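Good morning,

Attaching, inline, the backbone tokens for the sequence recovery test we're adding to the shared suite. The designed sequence is right after.
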């Protein structure tokens, strides 16, 4: 077992420590130092994002994808050598997006082309602000920037507004005028439709961009798209495909720029793309914080909590040994407080940070906390954070009313590990409608780690998605409700 960090000598109150917030954007606005000096990067995500070949960062809800993006954005504010454009796609109207370049072009060809246009728009805006580049001496670059400004898309582009402007009928007329004036400078054997023509021109110019500085275009906001219909999946698949292709073109030209996607793993798996696995194998990083809780002292989440606390104390501190009891009596097989707390999370930074915020709420003036105080905090965490978080995560997989029924069903049996026949019988007793598909519901609950499967081969040790991301729900196995939900569902400890 790894040795524990020394306890800080500077007196500090547990309640005064800052561990973070539920969302990275809020954290960046309120306490940016937590995302700068307090950023823990055991997987080397920052170096991979800045200089590596991988661009697709996959992780489950709360795993820290947005924190990575916000960290890079904050770093760029203090560095003259890093330029970061941060784009949130959550507000894009995909019904409007689908109207761009309709014609006779198939969606699988049209959507990547539209994304190429939008990505290049943000890259060119970033290039403009780089005084370390000689791009402003390139006549084609200057001419293209002037054209984009004339279209009203630069400077400081807005993704939603760019989609709306490009879909407008008057846009094609304005673009035709601009393309007509610059076509002579673009060497092509054959005139094509205006937007594809302009996209090809921008791509060629982008490939010539050179700089001693680094440009990152970070696309976030995927988490908020699951509640919508099915239209966006084709469009998002086109975004992944085109980002991969554009990155390869920029890399082959040694262009100091890169597109980064921060995407939920479960959303990525639903995208309709024949090249999805190839892209995943070549260019994806999976953000995975799980470690065997039996060696909890080595957990990156434990280190995250201790590291952020050390920002206030000015020296290393073991929060668990300083402010918490050594163990909780209710656990028969688990004796260490670190392991006991980790078992109430899905091993994500958000779960762990919110657990500690609830611990702070229930801590008294005396230190360390009593077992009773910790138990009260775990109850509040279960009811006020984890259950609502899982309900939010299920939206997009299940109808809102079916989510409510799923929670009712799990709680009404009062069992931590019910069998599927028991759940089926209980659903009938509750008179849940025929449209309530129990197997689909259980599969969705498994995918967000609200439940696991009991594996007889591992002495009853439950299998959860967060422990093994490639595992799937097994309807032939007994269900095990996540420990963090027990108090919210009124299940016995």
């Amino acid at each position: 077992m790894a040795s524990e960090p020394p306890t800080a000598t500077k007196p500090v109150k547990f309640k005064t420590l800052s561990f973070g917030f539920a969302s990275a954007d809020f954290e960046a606005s309120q306490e940016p130092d937590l995302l700068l000096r307090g950023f823990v990067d055991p997987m080397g995500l920052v170096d991979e994002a800045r200089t590596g070949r991988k661009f697709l960062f996959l992780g489950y809800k709360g795993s820290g994808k947005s924190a990575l993006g916000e960290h890079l954005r904050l770093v760029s504010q203090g560095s003259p050598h890093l330029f970061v454009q941060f784009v949130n796609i959550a507000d894009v109207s995909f019904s409007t997006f689908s109207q761009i370049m309709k014609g006779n072009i198939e969606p699988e060809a049209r959507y990547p082309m539209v994304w190429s246009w939008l990505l290049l728009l943000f890259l060119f805006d970033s290039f403009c602000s780089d005084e370390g580049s000689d791009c402003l001496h390139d006549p084609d670059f200057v001419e293209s920037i002037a054209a984009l400004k004339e279209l009203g898309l630069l400077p400081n582009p807005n993704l939603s507004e760019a989609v709306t402007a490009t879909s407008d009928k008057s846009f094609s007329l304005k673009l035709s005028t601009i393309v007509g004036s610059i076509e002579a400078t673009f060497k092509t054997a054959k005139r094509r439709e205006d937007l594809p023509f302009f996209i090809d021109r921008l791509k060629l110019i982008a490939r010539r961009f050179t700089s001693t500085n680094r440009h990152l275009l970070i696309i976030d906001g995927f988490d908020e798209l699951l509640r919508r219909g099915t239209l966006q999946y084709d469009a998002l698949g086109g975004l992944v495909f085109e980002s991969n292709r554009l990155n390869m073109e920029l890399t082959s030209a040694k262009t100091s720029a890169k597109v980064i996607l921060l995407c939920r793993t479960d959303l990525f798996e639903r995208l309709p793309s024949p090249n999805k696995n190839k892209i995943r194998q070549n260019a994806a990083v999976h953000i995975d914080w799980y470690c065997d809780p039996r060696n909890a002292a080595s957990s990156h989440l434990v280190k995250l909590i201790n590291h952020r606390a050390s920002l206030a104390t000015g020296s290393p501190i073991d929060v668990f040994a300083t402010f918490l009891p050594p163990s909780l009596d209710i656990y028969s097989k688990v004796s260490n407080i670190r392991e006991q707390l980790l078992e109430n999370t899905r091993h994500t930074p958000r779960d762990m940070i919110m657990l500690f915020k609830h611990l702070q709420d229930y801590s008294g003036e005396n230190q360390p906390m009593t077992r009773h105080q910790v138990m009260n905090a775990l109850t509040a965490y279960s009811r006020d954070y984890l259950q609502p978080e899982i309900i939010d995560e299920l939206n997009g997989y299940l109808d809102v009313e079916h989510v409510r029924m799923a929670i009712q069903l799990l709680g009404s049996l009062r069992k931590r590990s019910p069998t599927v026949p028991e759940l089926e019988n209980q659903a009938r007793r509750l008179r849940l409608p025929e449209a309530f598909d129990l197997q689909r519901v259980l599969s969705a609950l498994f995918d967000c780690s609200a439940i696991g499967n009991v594996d007889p081969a591992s002495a009853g040790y439950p299998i959860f998605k967060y422990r093994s991301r490639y595992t799937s729900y097994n309807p032939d196995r007994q269900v095990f409700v996540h420990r963090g939900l027990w108090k919210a569902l009124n299940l016995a400890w």
